[in-house]
Design brief:
Elements (H helix, E strand, L loop, with lengths): L1 H8 L6 E4 L4 E4 L15 E5 L4 E5 L5 E5 L5 E3 L1 E2 L2 E2 L2 E6 L5 E5 L4 E7 L15 E7 L8 E6 L5 E8 L2 E6 L1
Antiparallel strand pairs: 1-2, 3-4, 4-5, 5-6, 7-8, 9-10, 10-11, 11-12, 13-14, 14-15
């Protein structure tokens, strides 16, 4: 029975059982693995104002953690993991992210709750519709930064090993 309970609870180590009178029932505990664990950390972004830490897997997902408790998980919108290749926290508290596909995607402004924040001038949350690149080497984007003046910058490749900084 213990192996069956371990599989059901996603637990490969210690199994905690609760005495419920007639039966010993397995319970999930703080030693059980997280439901959506981050298994790779390639970029870490800090939101000092909210005491939050963002971690990227360098491929397509970003996790957000509480800086005091460590609680958190993968960023989701409408119940699904949100594809984010790169992320910066702005001085305004908003998120600036390269979203979309693994090869190209939009550079856009999002609220802390991950909702698109349109610019009054354009009516869209996108600063640029399609930045070509991915994490890693070869046609990759390297970073996003949001300045105190409201400008947003992205370093990306326009030709093999040739980079430029786009600013909006």
């Amino acid at each position: 029975g213990a192996k069956r309970y371990q599989k059901e609870l996603g637990c490969t180590g210690m199994l905690v059982l609760e005495d419920q009178g007639a039966v010993l029932a397995p319970v999930r505990n703080r030693f059980a693995p997280r439901e959506d664990p981050q298994n790779v950390f390639t970029r870490v972004i800090v939101d000092a104002g909210r005491n939050e830490i963002y971690g990227s897997d360098g491929v397509q997902y970003v996790w957000r953690y509480n800086g005091e408790t460590g609680e958190g998980g993968v960023l989701r919108r409408d119940g699904k993991p949100l594809v984010i290749i790169n992320l910066a926290v702005g001085y305004d508290g908003n998120l600036y992210a390269k979203t979309g596909g693994a090869i190209d995607g939009a550079l856009e402004r999002l609220s802390h709750e991950l909702q698109p924040l349109p610019y009054a001038e354009t009516g869209t949350s996108q600063l640029y519709p399609a930045i070509y690149g991915r994490f890693g080497t070869g046609y990759s984007d390297k970073s996003i930064a949001a300045g105190p003046d409201g400008r947003v910058y992205c370093m990306w490749m326009y030709d093999w090993e040739r980079y430029f900084v786009g600013g909006w």
